[in-house]
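Supplementary Note 3. Input sequence used for the single-chain structure prediction.
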Amino acid sequence: MTATTGTTFAVQAVTALYQHRMATQTQLHHLLAPDRSQQWTSKKLTALREHGLADSIALPPPGRQHLWYLTDYGRTVASDWPELRGVPSPPPVATDPLAVRMRAAHTLAVLRCHLAFLTDARRRGDEYGVLDWIPERYHKLTENHDDAVIADGLLRYTATSAPDGGRAQFRAFVEVDRATMSSERLASKLIGYGRFLDYTPVPLGRRSAVQAQSALPLWQKSYPLFPRVLFVLTGVGEVGLRNRIEDLKSMAAGHALAANLVRRVPAGVARLEDLEEHGPSAAVWTALDGRADACGWMEL
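The predicted structure, written as discrete structure tokens, is reproduced below.
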């Protein structure tokens, strides 16, 4: 990476905080300026505060880490930037430390996952940038607001280091689980993605049989191929990790919608700490289609 300038960092930091809602100083450093020092990043973030664009609060324990977020002015400034077109405006961040800590835990875990992919892509020389991860990707299935598939993240990744010298584009829905929900509820997300795979909306009014047959599944309005489905687990010990992986595999084998999904779409599960230590392209993923050997996420 070339050296990040102060102006570039300011624009990228505001953009990242708008998209991800909040991030620690360390995360912003690795996200935007890994070629610089932590002190340089701290100075530039302080400048954002002085200009009224961003602010931070200390996370417990005191002095350990600061959480950065955009002010009302910062959100207004960034709201009409072309690169953020279509990205929902982040809600104001509460200043109550307990409320922030409860909200931040999942948000920061999702950002950790993005950073693992970004670090691996930089090492490999692949094309995957700061904005190639879209948090909370929402897909409405019916008029019922609650009937939707909401991925923790959607990544768009172009591998340029293929053995044949070619380029390969990948997309993936990512679910980051911190063991805060039951294993059964986590596994049931496969059913939701299975519904999304085959869901074809029916317009109001009468339709001919030919029109009905030519209707396209909803996902084809956004993607050339259905994105692969990745589960990333953290906050659980070895026994809990094995149990959650087995429950995902059981759901994939035992439910018709989930079985159809993993038969047609690459799907796998890995631990977040393994992604951070070895990289997502390493053989740290368990495929959900019944294969025994671990593999990289692009080989699922």
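The mean pLDDT is 88. DSSP finds eleven helices and nine strands in the chain.
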